[in-house]
Amino acid sequence: MIKLFKHIFFLLVIICNYESYAQTNKLTCEMFFDEDSIKTIVYETSEGFSFEEQFYKNGQKKGIKTKFKGECHGVYMNYYDNGNVKSIEGYLYGVEIGTWLYFYPNGLKRKVCEYGFEKTDIYLEYQIDTILIEKANSNKYAMKDTLFSGFGYKKPTTCINYYPNGNIKSEEYFSHLKKCGVWKYYSLEGKLLKVENYNTEK
To answer: What ranges do the domains of the chain cover?
Structure first.
């Protein structure tokens, strides 16, 4: 829990300092939709940091990206065209860290992913009705039936899926690209429906 708070604090510090970096460092790139509509602005610092702002054609901010010597480093923030936050993601020298937050266009929380430095990543998947909104949260991970598509990832992972009422729908565990642990499935009301034990598999 202490490490989690440290990760969140790290992300907040970078968010708070982003505007000052953008105002005090060198503008290196501008791209436009047309004469009056800017698409992308990139700032760079002498220390190797770069800060990129992206915009929708209507002028609303689309995203903020920070890098260090070409690697993702710091906060990536993405927005819907209505101005609401779409996602907040954190990196440390190219590695996913801390708490990633995803939201619906109306601002309600959709998913929370917790990335650790050591042993466990936790995924909280939010659903509307019974429709899974997003099976895979990156090309490294896949939820549900398309288990670990793409490159794969060997950190132990816990996937917790939720019903729209906030109750847990299922608890799933993976290690080295394989199912492990005790999987549990629940009803909409929270009643335990099924248990699958993968601890016996070698």
So the answer is: 1-101, 119-202
Chain centroid to CA 174: 19
Taking the chain (202 residues) in runs of 10, the rounded mean pLDDT of each run is 45 47 57 67 77 86 86 88 89 76 77 54 41 38 33 53 74 72 91 90 52
SS (H, E, C) the chain: CHHHHHHHHHHHHHHHHHHHHHHHCEEEEEEEEECCEEEEEEEECCCCEEEEEEECCCCCEEEEEEEECCEECEEEEEECCCCCEEEEEEEECCEECEEEEEECCCCCEEEEEEECCCCCEEEEECEECCEECCCCCCCCCCCCCCCCCCCCCCCCEEEEEECCCCCEEEEEEEECCEECCEEEEECCCCCEEEEEECCCCC
Q: Of 52, 106, 60, 93, give the one whose Cα is nearest residue 76.
A: 52
Question: In terms of Cα–Cα distance, which of 104, 60, 106, 114 is closest to 83?
Answer: 60
pTM, rounded to two decimals:
0.53
